[in-house]
């Protein structure tokens, strides 16, 4: 019965199998190291068996990649991973926790929600499960600290990341029009105006994403906050200590308003198209002939969507990126990143084994090689990245002076959802900014207080 | 992976246990109960027997409906963490929130337009299809959307309403019609606040009209043909027959279907959640309740909203039950 499952999987992901084998060998070595698997109740042949449930957001091609990551783990341990994906992850997670039936392991982008759950004692601390010293040495300090709860214990470990604030463009389009990659914020705004005066809309922006609609616009705002007013304001802001109506945050929204232009005139299709179109289709007008827009700001994962919509596109020749210049030059080199963190909601030997596996560079490099993800783990080699663009993204992230985590994902989920909706309202009608921000202040007042 | 193994070792035995086990338990319950009742004196039997039969249903309703309803009402009187009694403070919070009032307004829109349109289409289709030879295929086609879940329906209609900028080829059916036939600018059906509520209601009506049609059609078949013959002999036109004979005779059924639709309208959730998630002023109470509960984890506000929704439904429910009994009594 087991072979049947393997057969169907093997056929789909033959490439993954070879890598998987290599990883399995490495893992076997790790498993033999003293003190590593002592807690997991390993039986004689090294197989634990049993089942572990994982809840995460990955579906489609991302789910295929995650399955490939799990394959060597399942082969080695005999544990079956029951994977479930959800686009409304917080809701699913909270329901199952309150029902007393949480998945053992979650891979969630919403760090803020998990911190809240950890402070309520609903998340298992990982300090005795993974080797904290190894994590400390392999991860940049930012990532390690992000995973720690208010009590100093480790609750979340990041496996894959995406870098935000990347402006994607088609170098052939830029060349044809003689546009230069902007080095400074004023270069960038000048370029926007130049494309506009040449008779095309400079930007692509689409924000529909089901229950999460609005987040692509919210990325713009948070990137502007960080590079305009600096890390202190940014951190106070997501922590609920900086009001939305404060001059710094308001200024960031206004700057975003200038980028998209009055009534969204800088955006292809205007606000209507931006609101009505799925975020994954953002590249379609840019790759049209003639191009309908020249630049789009999106996280590093978007290349996956480019290629899926148009398999002929080649990284580097058809699309590449520049990092969004800092609004305030004092903050040059600061970047926003996002990532999915693994946490354990229920302590079982199978869950322990899985978490121990997922934090290894071996496990993480499997997905890295398949494309679309960057590993925050320093032990994953640059040479593991499959194409020049992802190599470049990984280098940019490593070179970033300040890498701050996605503010939206750090906010409590009701704050974050209100933020997304506010972006939609703002893009639709920029003149409402004051009342939009006042309403966000109201949500802020209650969102951080209690669980 | 191992889906087959999972199915054979876990799901299949469970399925067998459910398919065979549940009827077996019920049969055992009835046989045992009847045996016990036979031991009772003759006079006591009629008063005990009904309870035996409705017992399981009452049990499940009590455990899964009544108890949670009271639990929710009780919870709505406590603060957010649930450790202090706050009386009606949650209701004040909710009812002074402007966005909740937008949701209430939208529920009213749903209540009026969804109910009336579904009834109107249902009645029209029932009466018209009654007069053609190909009645069955027509009715089957119109009833078909009932077989689709609301979520699938909402996904389908999102494609129907999809938007491309003016000049670009329209991928949405409705905008293709608007631009191709009427040569007007495409419309953002789900974002434009003047029409988006109606776009959502329209999709819902498409899904439910078949339900109204089938029930009204069944009732229509119950009206004796001689009655219509007699009216025609007396010189009544088809419109008069509809107004003076069919409509009054159908009225009790129309009321029952109508009140059922009103309850559906108040419960509206799936379509709104999938198509707009309540953005652009399309929120409804049920979706708002969902957001309070799952996004905010706010049990206080969400249970208050649930109780408000429950209170709004109760009068309709009572009216519906009365009407249902009246129809039964007339049989």
List the helices and strands and how they pair.
The complex is a heterodimer of chains A (451) and B (331).
Chain A: H1 2-12, H2 14-32, E1 51-56, H3 61-77, E2 80-85, H4 89-98, E3 105-108, H5 111-119, H6 132-138, H7 141-146, E4 157-163, E5 166-169, H8 171-177, H9 185-197, E6 203-204, H10 215-238, H11 247-260, H12 270-276, E7 295-298, H13 302-309, E8 320-323, E9 334-344, H14 349-358, H15 361-370, H16 388-399, E10 402-405, H17 407-410, H18 413-428, H19 433-447
Parallel strand pairs in A: 1-2, 1-3, 6-7, 9-10
Antiparallel strand pairs in A: 3-9, 4-9, 5-7, 5-8
Helix pairs in contact in A: 2-3, 2-15, 3-15, 10-11, 18-19
Chain B: H1 3-38, H2 45-75, H3 89-95, H4 98-129, H5 135-143, H6 150-160, H7 173-180, H8 196-221, H9 225-233, H10 238-267, H11 270-275, H12 285-295, H13 299-330
Can you describe this structure?
The complex is a heterodimer of chains A (451) and B (331). By secondary structure, chain A is α/β, with parallel strands linked by helices. Helix content of chain A is 49%, strand content 12%. Chain A has 19 helices and 10 strands. In chain A, the strands form 2 sheets. In chain A, strands 1, 2, 3, 4, 9 and 10 form a 6-stranded mixed beta sheet that branches. Chain A has a 4-stranded mixed beta sheet with strand order 6-7-5-8. In chain A, strand 1 (51-56), helix 3 (61-77) and strand 2 (80-85) form a beta-alpha-beta unit. In chain A, helix 2 packs antiparallel against helix 15 (361-370) and helix 10 (215-238) runs antiparallel to helix 11 (247-260). With 331 residues, chain B is mostly helical. Chain B has 2 domains: 3-58; 95-330, MetI-like (MetI-like fold), CATH 1.10.3720. Helices cover 75% and strands 0% of the residues of chain B. Chain B contains 13 helices and no strands. In chain B, helix 1 (3-38) packs across helix 2 and helix 4 (98-129) runs antiparallel to helix 10 (238-267). Chain B is globular. The N and C termini of chain B lie far apart (56 Å). The interface between A and B is medium-sized, with 39 and 31 residues.
């Amino acid at each position: 019965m087991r072979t049947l499952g393997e057969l169907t999987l093997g056929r789909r992901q033959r490439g993954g199998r070879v890598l998987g084998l290599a990883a399995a060998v490495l893992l076997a070595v790790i498993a033999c190291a003293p003190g590593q698997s002592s807690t997991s109740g390993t039986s004689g042949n090294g197989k634990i068996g049993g089942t572990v449930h994982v809840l995460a957001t990955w579906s489609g091609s991302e789910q295929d990649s995650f399955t490939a990551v799990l394959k060597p783990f399942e082969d080695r341990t005999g544990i079956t991973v029951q994977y479930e994906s959800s686009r409304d992850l917080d809701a699913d997670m909270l329901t199952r926790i309150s029902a007393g039936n949480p998945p053992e392991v979650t891979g969630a982008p919403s760090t803020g929600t998990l911190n809240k759950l950890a402070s309520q004692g609903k998340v298992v601390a990982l300090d005795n499960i993974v080797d904290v010293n190894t994590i400390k040495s392999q991860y940049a300090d930012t990532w390690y600290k992000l995973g720690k709860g208010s009590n100093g214990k480790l609750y979340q470990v990041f496996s894959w990341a995406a870098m935000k604030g990347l402006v994607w463009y088609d170098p052939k389009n830029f060349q044809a029009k003689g546009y230069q990659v902007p080095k400074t914020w004023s270069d960038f705004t000048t370029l926007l105006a130049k494309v506009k005066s040449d008779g095309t809309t400079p930007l692509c922006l689409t924000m529909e994403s089901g229950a999460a609609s609005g987040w692509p616009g919210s990325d713009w705002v948070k990137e502007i906050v960080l590079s305009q007013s600096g890390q202190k304001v940014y951190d106070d802001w997501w922590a609920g200590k900086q009001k939305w109506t404060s001059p710094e945050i308001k200024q960031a929204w206004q700057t975003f308003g200038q980028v998209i232009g009055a009534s969204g005139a800088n955006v292809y299709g205007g606000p209507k198209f931006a609101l009505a179109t799925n975020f994954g289709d953002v590249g379609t007008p840019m790759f049209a002939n003639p191009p309908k827009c020249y630049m789009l700001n999106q996280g590093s994962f978007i290349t996956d969507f480019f290629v899926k919509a148009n398999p002929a596109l080649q990284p580097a020749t058809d699309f590449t990126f520049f990092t969004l210049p800092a609004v305030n030059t004092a903050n040059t080199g600061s970047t926003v990143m996002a990532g999915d963190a693994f946490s354990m909601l229920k302590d079982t030997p199978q869950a322990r084994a899985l978490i121990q596996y997922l934090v290894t560079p071996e496990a993480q490099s499997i997905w890295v090689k398949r494309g679309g993800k960057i590993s925050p783990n320093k032990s994953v080699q640059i040479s593991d990245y499959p194409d020049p663009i992802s190599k470049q993204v990984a280098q940019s992230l490593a070179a970033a002076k300040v890498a701050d985590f996605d503010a939206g994902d750090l906010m409590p989920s009701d704050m974050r959802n209100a933020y997304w909706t506010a972006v939609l309202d703002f893009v639709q009608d920029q003149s409402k900014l004051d009342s939009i921000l006042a309403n966000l202040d109201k949500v802020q007042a209650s969102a951080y207080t209690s669980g | 992976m191992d889906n087959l193994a999972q199915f054979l070792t876990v799901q299949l035995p469970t399925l067998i246990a459910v398919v065979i086990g549940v009827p077996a338990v019920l049969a055992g319950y009835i046989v045992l109960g009847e045996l016990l009742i036979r031991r009772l004196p003759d006079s006591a039997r009629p008063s005990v027997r009904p309870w035996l039969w409705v017992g399981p249903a009452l049990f499940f309703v009590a455990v899964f409906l009544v108890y949670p309803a009271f639990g929710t009402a009780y919870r709505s009187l406590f603060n957010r963490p649930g450790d202090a009694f706050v009386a009606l403070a949650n209701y004040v919070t909710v009812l002074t929130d402007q966005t909740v009032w937008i949701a209430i307004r939208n529920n009213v829109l749903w209540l009026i337009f969804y109910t009336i349109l579904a009834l109107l289409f249902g009645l029209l289709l029932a009466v018209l299809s009654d007069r053609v030879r190909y009645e069955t295929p027509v009715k089957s086609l119109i009833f078909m959307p009932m077989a689709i879940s609301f979520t699938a329906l909402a996904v389908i209609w999102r494609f129907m309403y999809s938007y491309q900028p003016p000049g670009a080829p329209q991928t949405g059916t409705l905008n293709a019609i608007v631009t191709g036939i009427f040569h007007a600018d495409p419309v953002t059906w789900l974002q434009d606040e003047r029409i988006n509520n109606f776009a959502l209601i329209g999709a819902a009506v498409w899904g439910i009209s078949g339900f109204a049609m089938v029930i009204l059609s069944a009732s229509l078949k119950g009206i004796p043909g001689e009655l219509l013959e007699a009216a025609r002999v007396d010189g009544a036109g088809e419109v008069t027959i509809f107004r003076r004979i069919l409509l009054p005779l159908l009225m009790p059924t129309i009321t029952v279907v109508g009140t059922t639709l009103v309850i559906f309208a108040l419960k509206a959730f799936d379509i709104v959640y999938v198509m707009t998630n309540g953005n652009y002023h399309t929120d409804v109470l049920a979706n708002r309740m969902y957001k309070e509960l799952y996004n905010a984890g706010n049990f206080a506000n969400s249970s208050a909203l649930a109780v408000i929704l429950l209170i709004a439904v109760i009068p309709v429910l009572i009216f519906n039950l009365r009407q249902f009994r009246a129809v039964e009594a007339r049989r």
